[in-house]
């Protein structure tokens, strides 16, 4: 990891992290204070529907482009684009069809939120796949500029809509504008531009790697959305809003830095592994030691300051979320370390290991959550997630240290 202002310097990743996550924090905390838990929960249901559909249809192609031994040709990028656009269109249509069902199941009242969210996968699928080539080549300065511009438009538009009385729709309106800008900028900023004519062949060599990305996405769907589905279905949007805000705040303060850093580590580990596998293994060990020390320190501080933090940032109406926040701090700390492990395992071509770890996490979740929910309710779900994350992390750590 090198400082400086060269296009591949980690400085740009850190700047992107600081700016993007800061803008996301401003957006959701301000809207949470303006609109309250019920509105946040309603938006959460719409975004939950998008997450489910996108995870079930994940192609793994962006990660395969970054990890592959050879850079993709222009024709191969055309096939990637065709696949991603088709996937986005199918997901959008599926969400439009499912909107009335989601509205009834999660007590939303109107289906327009889910219908608006249906446009997100299509807009994302229309981005130029040369964006993933830029990540592969570690052009972090260009990537950071696009991501920061997208987040700025999203934040500003969402707040303007919220203050003008748009309610929960303001969050989705901001997201749509931001994603539209990002897709447009990927075509303007990156080369080579893939051909627009539909192309369905030429990327079969990505399938072996991408299928494990898809498997991980499906399993992670269960892991990341199961608790929200249970809370939203049984307790309604207001309780889901409190649950999601405590999780999101813990993520913003702890896990997002590691997740964003993994965007730098994945192509960096991949480049190191292609040049010298032993050096890549030594590098990931150093990152794990540094990450573990930082996570422990931050978790202790955040758990101690939980109650005044919620009162100051969100207001007293959010105090019931404090006990959940203290658990999510632990969960997000584990998630931060797992993000480093996943970046390394995928970089060396071992995407199967993270998929196996996710499957183990599902088994733990199924075994623990029914008893934990019966005994402690939503608190039990959160602790069940902790047990699953610890299991997954230990398996990936074993694969990292003792398997080649």
Which keywords apply here?
single chain, 404 residues, mainly alpha, 82% helix, globular
Give a structural overview.
The protein is mainly α. The chain folds into two domains: 1-202, no CATH class; 214-404, no CATH class. 82% of the residues lie in helices and 0% in strands. The chain is built from 16 helices and no strands. It has helices at residues 10-35, 37-56, 61-67, 74-105, 112-117, 119-125, 130-136, 140-163, 169-189, 207-235, 237-275, 277-304, 306-313, 322-347, 351-376, 378-402. α2 (37-56) packs across α4 (74-105) and α11 runs antiparallel to α12 (277-304). The longest helix has 39 residues, at 237-275. It is globular.
Strand content: under 5%
Q: What is the chain-wise order of helices and strands? A: HHHHHHHHHHHHHHHH
Mean pLDDT: 82
Total of domains: 2
Compute the number of strand runs: 0
Produce a short descriptive summary:
The chain is mostly helical. 82% of the residues lie in helices and 0% in strands. It has 2 domains: 1-202, no CATH class; 214-404, no CATH class.
Secondary structure blueprint with pairings:
Layout: H1 10-35, H2 37-56, H3 61-67, H4 74-105, H5 112-117, H6 119-125, H7 130-136, H8 140-163, H9 169-189, H10 207-235, H11 237-275, H12 277-304, H13 306-313, H14 322-347, H15 351-376, H16 378-402
Protein name: PST family polysaccharide export protein
InterPro entries: Poly_Biosynth_Transport (IPR050833)
Keywords: Cell membrane, Membrane, Transmembrane, Transmembrane helix
């Amino acid at each position: 990891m090198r400082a400086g202002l060269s296009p591949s310097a980690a400085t740009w990743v850190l700047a992107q992290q600081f700016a993007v996550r800061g803008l996301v924090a401003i957006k959701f905390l301000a809207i949470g204070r303006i609109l309250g838990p019920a509105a946040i929960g309603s938006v959460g249901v719409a975004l939950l529907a998008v997450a489910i559909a996108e995870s079930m249809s994940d192609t793994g192609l962006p990660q395969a482009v970054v990890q592959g031994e050879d850079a993709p040709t222009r024709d191969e990028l055309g096939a990637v684009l065709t696949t991603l656009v088709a996937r986005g269109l199918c997901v959008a249509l599926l969400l439009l069809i499912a909107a009335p069902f989601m509205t009834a199941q999660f007590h939303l009242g109107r289906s327009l939120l889910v219908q608006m969210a249906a446009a997100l996968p299509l807009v994302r699928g229309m981005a130029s796949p040369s964006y993933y080539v830029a990540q592969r080549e570690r052009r972090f300065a260009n990537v950071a500029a696009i991501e920061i511009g997208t987040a700025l438009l999203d934040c500003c538009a969402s707040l303007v809509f919220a203050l003008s009385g748009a309610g929960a729709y303001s969050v989705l309106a901001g997201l749509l504008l931001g994603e539209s800008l990002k897709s447009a900028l990927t075509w303007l900023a990156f080369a080579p531009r893939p051909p627009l004519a539909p192309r369905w062949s030429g990327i079969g060599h990505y399938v072996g790697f991408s299928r494990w990305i898809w498997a991980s996405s499906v399993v992670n769907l269960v892991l990341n959305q199961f608790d929200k589905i249970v809370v939203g279905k049984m307790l309604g949007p207001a309780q889901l809003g409190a649950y999601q805000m405590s999780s999101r705040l813990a993520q913003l303060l702890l896990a997002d830095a590691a997740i964003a850093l993994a965007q730098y580590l994945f192509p960096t580990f991949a480049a190191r592994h292609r040049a010298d596998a032993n050096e890549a293994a030594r590098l990931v060990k150093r990152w794990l030691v540094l990450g573990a020390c930082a996570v422990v320190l931050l978790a202790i501080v955040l758990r101690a300051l939980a109650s005044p933090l919620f009162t100051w940032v969100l207001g007293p109406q959010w105090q019931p979320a404090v006990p959940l926040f203290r658990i999510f701090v632990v969960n997000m700390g584990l998630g931060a370390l797992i993000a480093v492990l996943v970046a390394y395992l995928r970089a060396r071509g071992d995407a199967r290991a993270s998929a196996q770890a996710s499957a183990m996490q599902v088994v733990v979740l199924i075994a623990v959550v029914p008893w934990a929910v019966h005994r402690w309710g939503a608190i039990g779900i959160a602790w069940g997630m902790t047990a699953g994350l610890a299991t997954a992390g230990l398996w990936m750590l074993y694969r990292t240290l003792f398997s080649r």
